[in-house]
Amino acid sequence: MELLETVPDSLSTEELATVDAWWRAANYLTIGQIYLQDDALLQRPLRPSDVKPRLLGHWGTSTGLSFVYAHVSRLIRHTGQQTLYLAGPGHGGPALVAASWLEGTYAECFPAVTRDADGMRRLFRQFSSPGGIPSHASVTTPGSIHEGGELGYVLVHAFGAVMDNPDLLAVAVVGDGEAETAPLEGAWKGISFLNPARDGAVLPVLDLNGYKISGPTVLARKDPVLVRSLLEGHGYHVLEVTGEDLPGMHHRFAAALAEAHRRIRAVQRAARSGQAPEGVPAWPVIVLRSPKGWTGPSVVDGVQVEDTWRAHQVPLSGVEENPEHLRLLEEWMRSYRPEELFDDRGRPTALVRANDPEGALRMSATPHANGGLLTRDLVLPSPGDYAVDVPRPGATRAESTQRLGEYLRDVYRANPETFRLFCPDETSSNRLGAVFEASDRAWMEATVPGDVGLSASGRVLEVLSEHNCHGWLEGYTLTGRHGLFATYEAFAMVSASQTVQHGKWLEEAEHLPWRAPVPSLNVLLTSTAWRNDHNGFSHQGPGLIQTALTQRSGISRIYLPPDANCLLEVADHCLRTRSRINLVVIDKQPQLQYLSAAEAADHVARGAGTWEWAGTDDGSADPDVVLACAGDVVTMETVAAARILAQRLPQLRVRVVNVVDLMRLHRPADHPHGVDEFTFRELFTDHVDVVFAFHGFPGAVHQLVHGRPRADRFHVRGFIEEGTTTTPFDMTVRNKVSRYDLVVDALNNAGRLPVGAGDLRRWCRAQLERHRAHVVEHLEDMPEVRDWVLD
């Protein structure tokens, strides 16, 4: 077939036959996955034993997903358009599995599930079954990057996928139940950041089938004029297709899809030739109104099922026990005329296969859905080129993230099409503003005098939505590019569920040899709990660390660099990794610097190490107590505590251990970054008590050291939900992790106590009382704390 600029409006008689046959075949396979374990081709009357003992799945949305898929395949055959299909109603998973089986991709990925009768039987038996596949579009679904089990993210993933991907069209089917979620409501704004001169296009298809699990959906019950106005208000050109009549719906949808593609190509041609008007193009959106459970059982036991919420999951229940329901199931499946769709060996007939694009143009085989195949390594500058000069530990201050911003600026310059920063309106606030020397903020809306750093050519993504930023980065990395999501620590919890879902995707992908490793999801948490003293308690929460610790299979990595040079080394490492969630936590405020560039490189490579210069442990014997720390503010408090002990109780042997890679605390059996027993003992001994100052919730460290020698000797101080609008040091006092608290803890847990320990305890408690009075009177910390450096 000669490739065309776009697809013809009207379906020929032959095309109508093949599109409809493909759709019927997909519907047949979808029903089979939900219901059958045997007799896949209905070669005899169905028996109760042919039906699965547990009926699981979602029929109601699947038929609409397959309908759209069939027509988009026709568009691809005519135009050669590279297309990524994203199913927002993710529990329509059997429709996407059916599509990949029909296109032959499923057998390529899972050779045991052949494209014949035996393979069809395997396909049916594995669906929502032990040892099989889940009911939603997931990592096991060829052609999918969108984990459909949690609703709301289809558009953000689609927009992320097409950024810097000019030849890609992402068709994003938005379920009308999904359209009620907060992430999806915000996601429509993606076109305000999409530049058609260098980005691909997103075609949303709002699938209004009327119902969710047990009731109607909001948009389906609204006046269609209001729905059109809503979408037009977002800036879209609305195309509507309504009905259930066949073949009329085929003709109407084909015409709408052709018009949508023409509009997309016109927008792109104008932008790429320099003739586009300023502002946001009127990108198309299709509103598809069709019945829930379209073509399924209309009435069951005298109750309306099709076009109601009853079609959402399994329209016919109790099929094994109810002969009438078994008869209805067979009648329903035979209504698709399977003898026209599959030959006597169970293979799709030529009529069905005629609708499939070829090779990598099949949506289930597109390399954009297996982004590791397209990934190119970043060109990265040397972290040492951005290092802070550290003449001696703890004597100078710097904004650590400011140095990271300079590093990322040059990552942008060296990788103009494969790296982006995503941040909810906080790039400058988080001291990463140097990136604006390399790129403006992406912005397609109007600008006014006084705007700074906004342009259509910008590639820094800022929108005040953690969901959008996180989701854009996911779509960007899953299609093979690299990036970083930077946000305030407390508000990373807004998108924490996305982090969890992405981790699950990566975990399962590791077990699929055909899934190529993708760039890691890199998350920078700054404006942290310990220094959000002016915003107060609402901005004080290190919860994402705890969330990341729950990920299994070693997917998550958590880094707590204590200073700028360690941060640079950590960032360089993270941007080189694949298929990981890298969580990096450090504050943006000026902070003490400890390690030179070379020392930082060694420290980060080790992940944890003893800071001999900070303690009084000469290595000749075990220390009396170990002071450990992980996190920038608590590291400063630990070093200060060690210095107090050295000055006031020099006879006490104190070892200071800093942990930058939190997962080093795990046992090797529990995490690939866990240190071996020998190294753990070198750091912490196997019997000396450890006072551990931690950035996050104390329970995290107890979880990590579980199974280590005498794990009960670890006494952890960290964030205990004590926060308010107060001074920086008062935050540490309130959470009992201040230098004075740590000194008292060290004395309480040391193996031996020299003379003078009691006096030092009393002095520390007096200092804490003095602090409390000082901050109330002077509204700032005591000078000896505020201006403290390591002398």
Describe this structure in words.
By secondary structure, this protein is α/β, with parallel strands linked by helices. It folds into three domains: 13-356, Thiamin diphosphate (ThDP)-binding fold, Pyr/PP domains (Rossmann fold), CATH 3.40.50.970; 383-591, Thiamin diphosphate (ThDP)-binding fold, Pyr/PP domains (Rossmann fold, 3-Layer(aba) Sandwich), CATH 3.40.50.970; 625-786, 3-Layer(aba) Sandwich (Rossmann fold), CATH 3.40.50. The chain is built from 26 helices and 22 strands. Helix 22 (699-704) links the parallel strand 21 (690-694) and strand 22. The protein starts with 12 loop residues before the first helix and ends in a 5-residue tail after the last helix. The model has no long low-confidence stretch (mean pLDDT 95). It is an enzyme of class 4 (lyase).
Which features characterize this protein?
single chain, 791 residues, alpha/beta, Rossmann fold, 3 domains, six-stranded parallel beta sheet, five-stranded parallel beta sheet, 26 helices, elongated, lyase, Xylulose-5-phosphate/fructose-6-phosphate phosphoketolase, phosphoketolase activity
CATH class of the largest domain: Alpha Beta
CATH superfamily of the largest domain: Thiamin diphosphate (ThDP)-binding fold, Pyr/PP domains
Overall helicity? 25-40%
Domain tally: 3
Q: In total, how many beta strands? A: 22
- The spatial strand order of the largest sheet comes to 12-9-13-14-16-15
The second-level CATH architecture of the largest domain is 3-Layer(aba) Sandwich
Biggest beta sheet summary: 6 strands, parallel
Stated plainly, the CATH topology of the largest domain is called Rossmann fold
* Low-pLDDT sequence parts: none
* Structural classification: alpha/beta
Distance between the termini: 78 Å
| Average of per-residue pLDDT values | 95
Rg computed from alpha carbons, rounded to a whole number of angstroms: 30 Å
Shape: elongated
GO biological process, one term: carbohydrate metabolic process
GO molecular function, one term: phosphoketolase activity
Domain Xylulose 5-phosphate/Fructose 6-phosphate phosphoketolase C-terminal: 588-789
Enzyme class: lyase
